[in-house]
Amino acid sequence: MNEIVRTRFAPSPTGFMHIGNLRTGLYAYLFARKHGGKFILRIEDTDQERKVEGAVEMVYRTLATAGITYDEGPDKDGGYGPYVQTERMGIYKQYAEELVKRGGAYYCFCDKERLESLKDENGVHTYDKHCRYLSEEEVNRRLAAGEPYVIRQKVPEGVVSEYEDMVFGKISVDSADIEDGVLLKSDGLPTYNFANVVDDHLMGITHVIRGTEYLSSTPKYNLIYDAFGWERPKYMHLPPIMKDATRKLSKRFGDANFEDFISKGYLPEAIVNYIALLGWCPKDNREKMTMEEMIEAFDTDGVSKSASIFDEQKMRWLNGEYLKAMSPEEFYKVAEPFIDRAIGDAPWDKRELASLMQTRVDVLSDISEKLAFLNEFGEYDLNMFVHQKMKVDFNVAKRAVKVAIDALEALEDWSDDGIKACVCAAAEAAQMKSGQVMFSMRVALTGAPVTPGGAIEMAKTLGKGESLRRMRYSLERLERI
Ligand code: GLU
């Protein structure tokens, strides 16, 4: 590519950001970086009615957390601003008037009633081009009289508008199927149809990367480029991300919100890695990749035409891989807030808990469930001691717990190895299977059916005093049966 690539991400601040929106931004970013180009953030806020308080800040936060850095944007001037559409109002009006002069658009004075009357039985109206044929004098007279107007696209007749999409190939639409749509509304605000063209042109965007919902409108936008005599950008439309076989992810329904995943304890880099794979696959089919590796590997050939389904289980798995690959120190840093939440003020050694958790959780919010045994120990169901396969019943459990208590009371080296050697020796001396003793001890220590580790790890985590207190309490209960 000889030209300097410029791509943009153009979110509308109409809600939070679901991972489908973010994926669009990510691909535009990867493409720009791959080609040594610039990545631009533009806020498309002309739909003031749908604007949601705080949504713009959320866009900044999300991109920063996701590690998607832009070269130009509302807070980073690159000489093509402003980068917020409501700050560009004068520009659209000026270009709409210019387009009228060039014969690519016209003033339309039709009022609501007239437009209503054009509706078909389904309530859809196609504009009948009434004002396209007004004489210049009439237009000037009505403008001078201050009549409200919109500016409409003058779609050329009898042409086929075609372009080559980088993912979907040739797309063509007959101009007979394109309405003379509104470009500038009566309040002077542009429609998306106009603003996207003017902005992409003025911002020097070379590659427009966005969702497939715009695939078939693009021939219409291209006619506007042509009417201005502007060079068309190249286009890459991206297939949707679905939540199941028939439904797209939707921000209106709160689906797959990036920030929700962060608070659930997903790592940003794992989410970003996962969403990169929703619609793109590197040539070597790798799955776990850093941002740098994705930039290096990103290629249009690998972008899929078909929709992909968002699979949280897969994302959990990938997140778990990221957690396991961290150094103990890195893991401790991200896990600490979740450990704090799980144990409150209890005096457990947080570093030890972190090392116990690192290979056992896929998502950090799993920590609270896994550590529940630390705080919740009490009137648990004694039937948990019965294990047919291991031939453990209440009597065996009672003996086993007693053997363990007697042996561990004298133990000084409260390490994994120390506890293990001590319990195994005691089991042997008592002529019991060490599996039976370990199993009974684990239940006696935790009172939980599932625990994040076996008896040794649980005893180590709980510490000597608490372990013995719990086992004695459990033994008392067993003796009362
Ligand atoms: N503001 C549009 C949206 O959020 C962006 C479309 C585009 O990228 O051109 O859907």
| Oligomerization | single chain
Query: Strand arrangement, largest sheet?
Result: 3-4-7
What is the CATH third-level topology name of the domain at 377-479? Answer: Arc Repressor Mutant, subunit A
* Alpha-carbon distance between the two ends: 80 Å
Summed up, the helix count is 20
What characteristic shape results from the CA principal axes? elongated
Strand content: 5-15%
* Strand runs, count: 11
Q: What ligands are attached or bound here?
A: glutamic acid
CA gyration radius, whole angstroms: 32 Å
Q: Give a short account of the largest sheet.
A: 3 strands, antiparallel
What is the helix fraction of residues, given as a range?
40-55%
List low-pLDDT spans. Answer: none
Q: State the CATH class of the domain at 377-479.
A: Mainly Alpha
Could you walk me through the main structural features you see in this protein, from its secondary elements to its overall organization?
The protein is mostly helical and 481 residues long. The protein has a domain at 377-479: Arc Repressor Mutant, subunit A (Orthogonal Bundle). 44% of the residues lie in helices and 9% in strands. The chain has helices spanning 19-34, 55-66, 89-101, 112-117, 136-144, 192-202, 218-228, 258-263, 268-276, 291-297, 312-325, 328-343, 350-357, 366-370, 372-375, 394-409, 416-429, 434-446, 455-462, 464-479; strands spanning 6-9, 38-41, 105-108, 150-153, 160-165, 169-174, 182-184, 207-211, 234-238, 241-242, 308-309. A hairpin with a 3-residue loop joins β5 and β6. α9 (268-276) packs across α11 (312-325), α16 packs across α17 and α18 (434-446) packs across α20 (464-479). The chain is elongated, with a radius of gyration of 32 Å. The model has no long low-confidence stretch (mean pLDDT 94). Glutamic acid binds at residues 10-12, 44, 196, 210, 214.
